[in-house]
Amino acid sequence: MAEQPENAEVPQQPVIGLASATMNSPNTADSFSFWLTPETIVNPFDIVEAEQVGGDGPTRTFGLVTALEHTTDAPTHLSNFISNDFGSVEANPNTVRQGTTVAKAAVLSNDADVYMPVPCDLPVRFADQPGIHRALGITDMPEEYRLPAGLIEMSNGTRAVVYLDRRYVLGPEGAHVNISGISGLATKTSYAMFLLTSILQSADASKIGVIILNVKHGDLLTIDQEPRRGLEPEQHEMWEAMGLSPRPFENVRYLLPHGKDTHHTGQPNSFRIPERDWFTYAYSLQDTYDKLDLLMSQIPDPWDTLGALLGEISNGLADRNTGQWKPSGQWQDVRDWDSLLNGPPIFDPQARQAQQVGEVRAQSVGRFRRILRRIVETRQSGVFVQERGRRVARLSEQVAQIRGGQTIVVDIAKLTDDEQTLVFGDILRTVYALYAEAGIDEEELPEKVIIFVDELNKYAPARERESPIIEQVLDIAERGRSLGVILIGAQQFMSAVHDRVHGNAATTVVGRSGAAELSAAAYRFLDQSIKGNLTRLSKGELLLSHAIFRQPVKIIFPKPAYLQEGA
Questions:
Q1: Nearest residue to 231 (alpha-carbon basis) of 558, 565, 566, 557
Q2: Model's pTM, two decimal places?
């Protein structure tokens, strides 16, 4: 589909109805109604334009169709029953009812900023592509900031590219994207990967680094490979309509977790192993001593006893001047997980009991030992090691080496919940420190780093106590745009995510969702009639709400252009 220039002369669309206002249902500055000509098909989320008066001449008011009603001259349903020979479904009605379908539209904009109510009996038409761009404010968006985000496909066959304003995706005006919807039907991961491709192809990819967490099977461990069967012609058309090229990600590096048998087999603990450029990562105590708070994020600590003990441990294992690993004093014999758990100063091997550390009582130290042993020994997946070999990478070091134009995929699919929390928190803390702390060589860092994670509710749940991982996510959500750190998060239920996280997202994407979920406070920005339509979205259809759009719009998008699991 070739995109017409917005200033090109195009034939005027046919009239599909006239604006209608009644005593009980007036048109307002925010909405208007119109009746439809017979046999005209209009669906919710279509964008229409109504002629408007005011200003220096005729103007156009654009509206998003939100609801449709069929009304007749029958005062009650009983009247219709009686007119059909008292309920005969085969008889011709004695009284032929006069009726029409009435559509209700939410005002998007006016091309002359005239926001008077649309007068009765003025023509209404489907908006064309330039009209849709005018309605959404895309016309006023400088072309260099336009980021293709999908296609609007209307009932009359009109298609238009939807653009996001890059300044509200990557900063500085706004940032972050939140995606929610029923698993499998909302295609959340597919859309996030499409959006990342669009960003890399539309912006200067050499100034953008991407970090992706693979949380489901091997879905994202082949994003640098061509799909075996290629894409269907209609998928190519969608990519090309947006001015994008359907191709896999380039310059990808994969970080895969160490497993229990890795030291024997050399194979990581992953559902799928990429063809190239993959490395194994693991956590020794030396890699984790200053991140133990992240490891314990999901452990209740109402009296901060664990926090106090973690402070004692990190201070004892770090150099006071540099903060680097250097056990000293009573901690000088601590070298690995085993010596931390089973030796002084937190455990007396001869007495076989936990010891008081600082002001933390022995009972609390014993609880800490039981929790840590469970996480790093008895129930671990193999990512915790006594000593990290030369061929096994330190995750934070790998992440800190990210450069513009590079994509890093970190696999956490087979890790336990505690391990996943550590890895995600480690990534956030490393990236945040790179951009927030002084003394970093900024010339080597990309201007922007985008972090994509699914199941965001696991790390920043709603109505949850404060924890190190939540604080880290909130730091990114609230201050990341000023630093150049952007979060793309996805989850089944937006209501399950901390309100300060999704509230700071300048772009919200919602796939098919249940009525119970849509009744949550997180969806207050949606009109009630739009919520009803959200329960009927098909797979691949999404509702897109963006900072510069007055109303959310329904979009479709192409399939990813890389090899997917099962393909």
A1: 558
A2: 0.92
